[in-house]
Structure formats: structure tokens, C-alpha cells
Amino acid sequence: MLAKPPVPELKCCDHHAPPPLFTGSRRRRLWDLESHAHCPLVGVSIPLDVLRKLVNKAVGGNALVSDYEVHAGAVSECGRRTRLSELMQADLETRYAREVLAFKAAKTTMELAELWVKHLKCGEVSGAFWAALTHPRCDMALQEGMCRDLHMFQHQAGAGVRLEIAKFNALADENAVLARELAKVQERSTRLIANKAAECERLQAEVVRARADVIGKDSQIAYLTQDLATLQAAAPSLEENRRLQKRVLQQAHRQAELEAQVADLRRKLAAAERVNQQADQAAAQAERALPKPQAEPSDAPLHLQEKVVLCVGGRSGNIANYRDVVERVGGRFTHHDGGLEDNSSALDANLAAADLVICQTGCISHNAYWRVKDFCKRTGKQCVFVENPSASSLERGLAQIAMPIRAVPHAVPAAEGR
Predict the structure, then answer these.
(1) Overall pTM surpassing 0.85 (yes/no)
(2) How confident is the model at residue 316 (pLDDT cuts 50, 70, 90)?
(3) Mean pLDDT estimate for the chain
(4) Where are the domains of the chain?
């Protein structure tokens, strides 16, 4: 660090002989101004850090003095043309070139004063003070008035600064409170964000697992579909087999129902036979006690004596009634639906095994009708054609073949008592 340079020990209040006012068109230089204008000019128009740089440049080193001493030394140097005053002159001209150009438009002292007042009201006094002081039309009265205006402006600026400082301190306190509140809010927000991030990660993991499960299920479905297609290609009759299996199950269920019905009928038949046997015994005792009357064979009741009666056609809901009618007269009932659902190829076998045939013409296919008629005609087998598919019509049909059946001698005793 350089040694302390010699700075002139001059105060702001030191005065030199006032330079004469110029009446030409040339702008005045810094050293041409009155000494009482140097102090406000340097204090307002040149920033302190810039002023210290200019002083250091003028002395060729670092001035190890206070800001006040730098200001006082610079003010004292403004009274004459020196290295420092020339540097300050050049800086002021460069810094406030725009204001100098604006004030150049003033041609009279009144216009100059109006420009100064305008800039003063706007608070733009730094460049305006320099441009107005150095203007050729700035007289002593205007210069004094400008100095007074600047002095009051500085007081007002100081009061404003104090007010601003108070406001700043209040705002700083409020800012501290808000900063603490903001820190708390940020902390809560950080926790919420962390919780939400963890929740999002968990949900994302669940989504990934769900997608993996869906992909696995889709793959399994694709494999099963492919296997099904392969099986269907290997077994073209698979659907037919399924249908037949379903039909077998239905027939098995129907057979179970019929077997249960047969068992119930057998129980009833056994009970009826016991009753008939008791009645026969009572009748036999009565016959032994009385002379036997001559009975006409035609008066004996119908009894089929275990003959097989085939019923072709008819309604499926009346089959149980058909069976009851036939078995009530001692016959064995068989049925074929006439080709509607049963296999038509089994019709010939049923016809061959039957002793009697009853054809329900109202509920039979044309093909089955002609096959039954042709078979009975060729074989001479008894056949009765019934139009109405009711149980009573079936009884009347059996009545048509009653006479040949009654002609059988051993059929009469078995039918008695029924």
C-alpha cells in the first residue's frame, strides 16, 4: 500500500476570488464556477466511489483518508485547473452528456430556470445541476437559487432517507417474520412432497405389478386359446360329443325320474295286488259256497298279460299317463317319439320287439308314420292309429284290440279284481 499522498488541507467553506461570469456562448468549466457551488456539485453530481477513484488516479496511489477528507480535498481542487479538477470535469461531461444536451436548448435565463425547476420536481438533480451551472445563461441569481433549492432538496432527501430507512427496518422485520413462516410452509411442503413422492412410487410399483399380471394373464389366455384351437383341430367332432354328452346327462336324469316313478308304481301295484289277492281269496270262498255261473268270455275285462305295447309318437308330457294306462291292464309299455328326438333307426327294432303298436298320428313325423304302417302291414302285427294324443284316446285304442286279447283263455283270471 502506498504512503498517504499529500492532499490540500482545504475546507468546503474556503473561498477564492469569484471568477467573472461569462456572457458568451461557451459553457463554463468546473474551475470557472463560484467556490460556494463546488461543494454541493461534488457532493451531488459525483458518486463517492467514483470520486475516490479519480483522487487515486490523480495522486498515482491510494488515498488513505476518510470519505470526508476525500470530498474536502476534491472541493478545494475545483477552484483551479489541476490534474484532479480536469479528471472531474471529464467525468461530469461524460456522465451527464444527455442532460447537457437537453439544457443546451435553453436560450435565456428564464428558459434555463424552467428546465431546472422541471428536473427538480422530478428529482433528477445530479445531471441538471451540472448542466445548469455550466450553462452560459446561468447568472448569479439563478446560481444562488439553484444552490438553495439543492440545499433544501438534500434536507428533504435526508428526511426521505430516514423515512425510507424506518420503512425498510419495518419491512425487514416483517420480512423476517414472513421468512420464518415461509420456512415453516416450505418445511411442510417438503414433507408433503416427500410423502406424495413415496405414495406415487408405491402406486407406480402397483401399476407395474398390475401390468405384469395382466400381461401374464393375456399370455395364459393366448396359450389356452391356442391349445383349444389345437384340440378342436385334432377332434372335429368335439362339439358333437359335447352335445351328445349333454343329451346323455339329460336322458340319465330322465331315466332316474322314470325309475323313481316305476318304483313308486311298483309299490302301489304290490299293494293293489295284495288287495286283489285278498279279494280273490274271498271270492273263491264265496264261489265254493255258491253254484258257479256261466260267464261269457266277452264279459271278462281286458288284460294284456305282459305283452309289449309300443306307443309311437304322442306328447312327452303324457308319456307317464300312457305308461300307467298300459301297465294297468298288465302290459309292458315302450315308447318312441316318432323321430322327433329319438334315433329313427331304433324304430324298426322297437316295432320288432312289440306285440301291439299304437300310432299317435297327430304327434309323429311323416316318415315314422309310413314306416309303422308298412311294418305292421308286412308282419301282420296289430296296430291302432290314434289321432288325439290323450290318455283317454289311448284307452279307446286299447279297447279296439280288446276282443282278440279276451279270446286268450288264460288272460281272464289274471284280469279279475282290477
Answers:
(1) no
(2) confident
(3) 80
(4) 30-165, 166-234, 250-278, 301-415
Q: Give pLDDT tens digits for 119-136.
A: 888 888 888 889 888 889
80 neighbors 35 (Cβ within 8 angstroms): no
Q: Which three cell numbers stand for residue 248?
A: 346323455
Burial of 375 (0-12, 13-18, 19+ CB in 10 A): middle
pLDDT band at 200 (very low <50, low <70, confident <90, very high): very high
- Cβ(60)–Cβ(74) under 8 Å? no
Grid cell for residue 98: 444527455
Q: Check residue 15 and give its pLDDT.
A: 40
Q: Which fold has domain 301-415?
A: Rossmann fold (3.40.50)
